[in-house]
């Protein structure tokens, strides 16, 4: 008599997603996703009641931690009043959120255009910069990421754009910044060369053609690459000199992630526009914002603003965002991010003494990554930039061990990202770093036998 195998609840959940949905940035066969049943604080729980510590806050966005009922309550309350109005209508929460963001943002960044996500914030920032200045070129950095939509992926300097290079949007010019970790010519020359090369690029492209320079507040998935000291101030001065707008992408580094409201605040500058998303609602609902200076907004008092989205200023997302901002302040999460960031630095310094494969640790607040190398003297990476599958053998083993030991985090090339929710405690940091330390033993063994 034949036996009928009935799939478990977990198997059915996984197979439904694998069979009927597509996964981002992945070869679709051979995937083994975590089937998350619920989440709380810094932990994810699967359908087999296994716990994973979330050391990358989802995609560096769940800053307030998982499962906060205050967001749920705010969303329910708003939906009981009204779930949607056209953007030409207004709701109470729209104005309250705009006012709150104006209070948080420095300078005269007082006007909010609400979007759907980080990419749509970037897209609208680019469009507005071109329309406002009458210029067409946008300068951006290699080894940066600004989203996957048509314009945003062309703006980014991440190799994920290579697959669609033949369809890329025009008039994006990329420049390179020396990698501080691998710079050999003295700290005093790092800023000098960085600014000189940017000035040359502007001269070559024609300053009267350049609408904006687009930079991340702090580097994210490219490896938390740090700007030379004084670079952002010099860029702000260059923009002022040539009438170029400065757009700062705070989608990942914003809302307390770096220990300040925004990453650019570590550099003593004020941009002309800020692109926001992720930490604005912490992933509880999709939402974004382009914050614009009064100087730019004034032009559109008597000129049509050429921006529009069906779901702009969506009232339910506005409610989630407003409550999220309240939570940052009520729970002192930004202060905790700065404090736990310093503790993280101390603990990773201890790991570096233990593990010869740790080459560098780059961190700002709770946005950091460990870079693994084959040799600390030569600084040869354990997996190269844009590594091919066969070059990822060791790092894939490290990533597998991390998950096996009960952690979810972002591993890319030779980087292990560490960006837990801003609610994280010292005990949770030690728990997570113990898992990473055990996993890095694989890298240590590989360089010892090579």
Q: What is the number of strand segments?
A: 16
Based on secondary structure, the structural category is: alpha/beta
Radius of gyration: 22 Å
Mean pLDDT: 96
Strand order of the largest sheet: 4-10-9-8-7-5-6
Report the uncertain regions. none
Order of helices and strands: HEEEHHHEHEHEHEHEEEHHHEEEHEEEH
Helix segment tally: 13
Q: Total domains, how many?
A: 2
Beta-strand percentage? Answer: 15-25%
CATH class of the largest domain: Alpha Beta
CATH topological fold name of the largest domain = Aspartate Aminotransferase, domain 2
Apparent shape = globular
- Cα(first) to Cα(last) distance is 54 Å
The share of residues in helices is 25-40%
The biggest beta sheet reads: 7 strands, mixed
CATH architecture name of the largest domain: 3-Layer(aba) Sandwich
CATH superfamily of the largest domain: Type I PLP-dependent aspartate aminotransferase-like (Major domain)
Overview of the molecule:
With 450 residues, the protein is an alpha/beta fold. It folds into 2 domains: 9-64 and 332-449, Aspartate Aminotransferase, domain 1 (Alpha-Beta Complex); 69-330, Type I PLP-dependent aspartate aminotransferase-like (Major domain) (Aspartate Aminotransferase, domain 2, 3-Layer(aba) Sandwich). Helix content is 39%, strand content 17%. It contains 13 helices and 16 strands. It has a 7-stranded mixed beta sheet, with helices on both faces. Strands 11, 12, 13, 15 and 16 form a 5-stranded antiparallel beta sheet that branches. Strand 15 (411-412) and strand 16 form a beta hairpin. It is globular, with a radius of gyration of 22 Å. The chain starts with 8 loop residues before the first helix and ends with a helix. The relative contact order is 0.14. The mean pLDDT is 96.
